[in-house]
């Protein structure tokens, strides 16, 4: 008889076969038909016995797909070693009051063979049923048992292929998660480390496959699988969790586990290195330390993949999961995901920061700056989200929206004849003619092109694509100003400047803002402003935060200025109310 514990394990075994609930199997039906013909009975069932019901995976001559456990004959069968035979149920005290027996045309004969897993748990039965009393001889009992074995073999085969990778034969991701869950059965929750091995990174893998075919990549994967199996034997179990990735767990109490991983990955790299760098797969590892917690299991593999990605980006052989990087990564993902909704709602809007002439204090224009009020993340700076959009191929959509907003705002400023400058990203010059887009927008909103200025940052990207210069020329021909933004930061270069059709130079904030306190920046600012001026550019200093700073750039002969000291960015409606002239106090006599 089974005690409470073994019943728990038996039920676990039934639950482990969860797929049976959905997977249809032709072979089960065949076995049922075979049994019906051989024993000449109207009803054959393959049943699984759960806690309070039994359900039928395959059935012939029975119209329900489950019955409550208290009506189940099979619940008795699973306690037997061999076949349970009930020659006449109406005379058997266990069954004679069973509704299935007392019903009209009810069950009289029953014989069932238990379905037993390799670990010895009976999960259900194969049974034959008749409305007439009947008796099986020894040979017939053996046949029934054989058929039950066939059902079980079918189930096990299915489980095996469900939980193992067909190529490497290693347990797969499904098995990994099942085993991860089993960790919870262990009495002490120890710290463990999950190590994910990326056999060949996805870009490299793809390139390799294109060059040498799937055969070569497959054999590398197999080689690595084999080596992992050997290296981990007696220590841990390797899982083949997806195409190119393997994982295993170690206890952090294992001395020098990091060194172990380090050496393992070095061996894998040495082993798979080929003569050509192009076809060397360079495996990497990502590690994440964890404690058993069923709620975070699904996330564990993701974190380990994240660590692999960190290793990839840092070009190291392995990396440990870093929560800060993970958060930044997910935040960027959220931003990229939400941009369309933001553009379609009032989450995104433009503010305008005035720019003033240092000669006469007039407001000459305003720079359109994008703002995003994200529903969960709050205010997000363009310095953060613009690069995300650039990386994810979303910037053109954003720019089109900005252009439309700028134009419609200008069209609404009836008495305000303010010029506007807008920022473009290098990606705005790819696969489209931004000049043409701006020209059409000006036409649509009836805005004179000379009221517009575009700001770009100087860099290699301008020379890398001949279309850029052509498009910039087009903009200049339309009458728009082209400004080099953030000049003096990064690698701004006067030598190449004449190749760019720009007529305005904006000195970078990082040089301007702390000008009063930095003699070095004073020299740089003065030189750049003078040189730019001599070369015929109009010059702008941005990031003016105080009077001294304003005085210095005025003294250096800068033409125009922008900064918090002069005016903060304002909503389009508020711009008209702002001063259109610098107050005399702020105007420095030059
Ligand atoms: P940027 O084009 O150099 O814009 C100037 C930045 O300096 C703005 O930051 C502005 O608010 C800030 N600023 C202005 N005066 C001061 C000051 O006195 N002190 C300080 N500390 N900062 C000042 P914001 O609005 O955060 O924009 C950051 C960057 O994001 C912009 O730098 C620009 O590169 C980009 N960006 C903003 N809007 C757009 C857009 O519509 N399209 C594109 N492609 N990029 C944009
Ligand atoms: Mg700008
Ligand atoms: Mg700037």
UniProtKB/TrEMBL annotation:
Family matches, as InterPro entries: Cyclic-di-GMP_PDE-like (IPR050706), EAL_dom (IPR001633), EAL_sf (IPR035919), GAF (IPR003018), GAF-like_dom_sf (IPR029016), GGDEF_dom (IPR000160), Nucleotide_cyclase (IPR029787), Rev_trsase/Diguanyl_cyclase (IPR043128)
SUPFAM superfamilies for the chain: EAL domain-like, GAF domain-like, Nucleotide cyclase
Gene3D superfamilies for this protein: 3.30.450.40, 3.30.70.270, EAL domain
Species annotation: Pseudomonas prosekii
A GO molecular function held by the record: cyclic-guanylate-specific phosphodiesterase activity
Official protein name in the record: EAL domain-containing protein
Stored Pfam families: EAL, GAF, GGDEF
SMART domains in the record: EAL (SM00052), GAF (SM00065)
Domain EAL positions: 332-583
Organism superkingdom: Bacteria
